[in-house]
Amino acid sequence: MSSNIAFFIFAVLFFRMMRDLISKLEADNILAREEFLNLIDNHTPDDAEYLFERARAVRESHFGKAVYLRGLVEITSYCSNDCLYCGIRRSNRGAERYRLSPEEILQCCEEGHKLGFRTFVMQGGEDPYFSDDVLVPLIDEIKSRYPDCAVTLSLGERSRKSYQRLYNAGADRYLLRHETAATAHYSQLHPQWMSYERRMECLMNLKEIGFQVGTGFMVGSPYQTSENLLEDLLFIARFQPQMVGIGPFVPHHATPFASEKGGTAELTTFMLGLLRLMLPGVLLPSTTALGTIDPEGREKGLLAGANVVMPNLSPVDVRKKYDIYDNKLFSGEESAQYVRNLADRIASTGYHVEFVRGDAPGWAKR
Ligand code: 5AD
Fold this sequence. Notes:
Blueprint: H1 2-28, H2 33-42, H3 45-63, E1 66-69, E2 71-76, H4 102-115, E3 119-124, H5 132-145, E4 150-154, H6 160-168, E5 173-175, H7 183-189, H8 196-209, E6 212-219, H9 226-239, E7 243-248, H10 265-278, H11 288-293, H12 297-303, E8 308-309, H13 339-347, E9 352-354
Parallel strand pairs: 1-8, 1-9, 2-3, 3-4, 4-5, 5-6, 6-7
Bound molecules: 5'-deoxyadenosine.
């Protein structure tokens, strides 16, 4: 009997302590290492609910109920890189490769603009075809046709000079996930010629040049520990990006990680909630990977503090070739063409789609 009482008192105190940590994170936007670790490792479903409640309150104080949309154009599945987790890594001889011509990309933007999109994200593998000489006139053309739109690039590691040229051409934002902020873990996920230092250098360059910068990581990637996730949070707190993209790791059958376990929606949404409290005004997508592993993933992400959704605007016939992980969604609400259905599903969360550029707070239109 007395041990039951002791357990009850312990449980009540523990419950209180987790909530106190969440309130402290909301007030200070940061926690000590042990506090973050404690939250990551020991939270209960009730703690997660409380976190999400606070994350929604914070997101609503900055963005109201608005969800921003980005039209995602996957411009190339060629990649000279060889990240061990990724289905379009160059060692995957079975991957179907395609690249869009500048004209095809412009058609995607035209269609997207008609559908109401005001941000175009050009994402692709590290494909030498997309040199500055190809990208600069393309960005320039998109910006002059659609001066009311933002252009986001997600094209991997490039030289500072190249980033500068792309910025000068009118690109507004750049996404480059750091993938993991623990150097040893970084080496376990990447080929030996890639380095964490180089990744950091790229991110610093992007920031100094003046891009709105996005970084991020996978949740549940092979070998990942809670300490690794802690390092990710601490790096993001230092770096103060305008955008953070996170999603669960999802194994791809033709990679060295084919039989590894995938990340969970539970931990991914928990990390989303923590990120919202750390960076109250951050642009935080509820990612396709989260929607892929859980039929309600997209909605769960929005209810955990995310405020951005990125439907696919690529030509329909290439979509399945941008095959970075197994079962990646590309139809239904993931498809830009079904943006009205997506808007309806989002409305079921109490949030609503806004057809605006959706810059980070405090960022003037260029
Ligand atoms: N599972 C989940 N996310 C992945 N990415 C690449 N491969 C996978 C995978 N197997 C993510 C990486 C990359 C982004 C484009 O997609 O984080 O930065």
